[in-house]
Amino acid sequence: MASAQSIQVLPDQVANKIAAGEVVDRPASVVKELIENSLDAGARRIEIDVVAGGRKYISVRDDGPGMSRDDALLSVERHATSKIRDVDDIESVHTLGFRGEALAAIASVSRFTLTTRRREDLEGTEITMAGGRILDVRETGCPPGTQIQVRHLFFNVPARRKFLRTEQTELSHVRHMFLVYALSHPDRGWRLTVDERETHRLPEQSSFQERISDLFGTSYADALRPIDHEREGVRVHGYAGLPRAARSDRSEQYIFVNGRPASAPVLGHALAQGYHTLVPKGRYPLIFLFIELPSGQVDVNVHPAKKEVRFRRSGQVRDAVIEAIRSALSHPGDSATPVPGSEEPADPAAGAMTEGTLIIEDLPVARTFRYPRMPSLPSLETGADAYAAPTGTGGEEENRDAPWSWCRVLGQAGGLYVVLETEDGIVLMDPHAAHERLLFERFMRQIREQRVQSQGLLSPESVELPPQDALIVRRNMDLLKAMGFGVSDFGGASFIVDALPQCLGNLSALTVLAEVARGLDQGGTRAGTEGWAETQVARAACRAAVKARDRLSLQEIEQLVIDLARAEMPYTCPHGRPTLIFMGFSELHRKFGRS
Ligand code: ADP
Ligand code: MG
Predict the structure, then answer these.
(1) Does 147 sit in the ligand 1 pocket, CB within 6 Å?
(2) According to CATH, what is the number of the domain 217-329?
(3) Is the distance from the beta carbon of residue 146 to the nearest atom of ligand 1 less than 6 Å?
(4) pLDDT score at 549
(5) Which terminus of the chain has fewer Cβ atoms in its 10 Å neighbourhood, N or C?
(6) How much of the chain is in helix, strand and coil states, percent to nearest 5?
């Protein structure tokens, strides 16, 4: 017996069990490691079976190259890997695994069977292990490829077994893992069987779009916009969910770095920034993000289970992601790159209905107007008022990025929402939210360019504010002046307002000041960051300006729709509420059982 103080090198079996604590913490991580091995081996088809959430049984079978008997025996040894040879290789590793730990670790905490055969061999090899000890090695007949079966995970580590959650929960983690890899490898065929019931069967050679539709259905795909962006050697592509499709947690954010599912704090921040003002706090956009950069620029070695990556130049990655998201969402759609599941735009003249068109004879004809397909750099220089008459710019220069070429106002619902028809479907617009978005962008642009125009009031207004609001306004006098508000302090809670930013139009000084004070009051943690106060003021002022309008002409509505197409962020108002809700004809056809 060794005394308590003496140092000993741990026997491999103990070391493996400890390593297993890092690599294997639940059935889903076993599934992950085995899938990665199959992918690294170049398998075309991967089949996964789990029983009881993976607690009782996990099997991953592939049609890859298989292993010789000697290699199979080596593969379950600690630090046995065919993927790197020395330290320098870690820098340029392009396989999913390279630590040589997974098989040894999994085998040390389960009853483990590895069955493998190379195509050229007549017989395969089967290795049976329990708790890391080899029980049996024999020749066996089996199909080419490799199958690993894991029974009774953690049977010999009761402490860890106790940490497992319900079968349901473990299964949902396994499923998530499956989705992550099936998504990032649409070229491979996949099957998932849960408690002997097949839940997914995905064909080989799919495109990414097909894979998304297969996994989530086509209606899901309608809420996605393609991302494709490159900046300083960092390529960002995939799909960004529209703000309306945001979720209450991050479970639908699929992020891959050089093909590996990965997370990094900087990516979370980049997403939040990319969607800033588009998605309210506590909501998480749906996203499929693939980030590609030279392998020397990213360290995948920081986390034993390779969950977290570190970037050499994280600022660059962050900026690339923010830009990529912003530009994906900047236009209501992109006709050049089809969104998965969306149909080819129909000929406007023929309408979207091809089969079963119905004419209602005495329906009043609604005017169709051209929706601007404009140059991609939008210009908002159409005048001071968002509701100015159409200038005709929509006609000649076409914007390939705009989703529709024509549009018509069908009417209004609920005394508020505008119902539009386009070549692709029905669109509902909240005119207040839309107007707010446009005003906000124009105002922010003028602020950025320091050319806010102030308009003097015919008769200066005296405004009495609640004490708290008065305090806030007083504290921000300089800012307000710089933003075109002519405000002077009259002592106590009184102010005199003699000018307002011109772009806001006619509105009551009291309403706008009260709204602005409230906006500045909602500081929270972001208060004090650069540009925060301006943004708050602009947002609040625009809300006040929009509230003041209660009447719109049809022409103004049309102009609103046209201007929205040119907005930087057309989908939500500055407070994060949606401006437009789409219902594509493909979705309608489906709902009516036509397709
Ligand atoms: P790593 O993946 O880090 O190399 P593993 O313990 O996961 O370490 O696997 C050890 C080795 O076993 C791999 O390097 C590979 O050579 C071999 N191997 C594992 N799984 C498979 C498989 N499905 N097909 C072919 N070879 C495999
Ligand atoms: Mg591995």
Answers:
(1) no
(2) 3.30.230.10
(3) yes
(4) 77
(5) N
(6) 35, 25, 40
